[in-house]
Specification:
The structure is a single chain. The chain is an all-alpha fold. Helix 5 (84-97) crosses helix 6 (108-117). The chain contains 8 helices and no strands. Helix content is 65%, strand content 0%. The protein has a single domain (11-159), classed as AhpD-like. It has helices at 11-27, 33-47, 50-62, 67-72, 84-97, 108-117, 120-142, 154-159. This is Carboxymuconolactone decarboxylase family protein. GO terms for molecular function: peroxiredoxin activity.
Length: 160
């Protein structure tokens, strides 16, 4: 599969990329990297973004996440390897990603679990993270960015 278009080869695309990176940088201090990568991986799986699945699986592995947990992200509800806090974040990621599939969006039950486990700044970061990864997935899917060639650390280099 060949990408359709290199968004970052344009002036407008570069501006979009820099602003997206700035939002992501604002989120980072509030949540552990492992949690951020798990949330992004799950949303990317749902959206079918090969580039983002590749990137977030590799970033998670590079930061010490186990192959077992990475392999079970898609089946987190039927797995014993995630904490209650991680489960709340993964539920938010799923429901926030599948907005068109649920008339009410994020359920009150999921929201209550998120509020139980995360402080206000972390909640803001989780909501922002789910929104941003869904935007990134749209870029990847629309532009047909294939997975497989991502090298860990590239995201950090984009912010420099």
């Amino acid at each position: 599969m060949e990408p359709r278009f290199d968004l970052f080869a344009t002036e407008t695309g570069t501006r979009i990329g820099k602003r997206t990176a700035a939002v992501t940088a604002a989120i980072e201090p509030a949540l552990p990297k492992s949690l951020r990568e798990l949330v992004c991986l799950r949303a990317s799986q749902i959206n079918g973004c090969g580039f983002c699945v590749d990137a977030h699986a590799k970033e998670a592995a590079a930061s010490g996440e186990s192959a077992l947990r990475l392999g079970l992200v898609a089946a987190w509800r039927e797995s014993t390897v995630f904490t209650d806090a991680e489960r709340a974040a993964l539920a938010l990621a799923e429901e926030g990603t599948r907005l068109a599939d649920a008339h009410q969006g994020v359920s009150d039950e999921t929201w209550a679990r998120v509020r139980e486990h995360y402080a206000d700044d972390q909640v803001a970061a989780l909501v922002g993270l789910v929104a941003m990864i869904n935007a990134a997935n749209r870029f990847g899917v629309i532009l047909r960015r294939p997975g497989g060639s991502y090298e860990p650390g590239v995201f950090a280099a984009l912010r420099d």
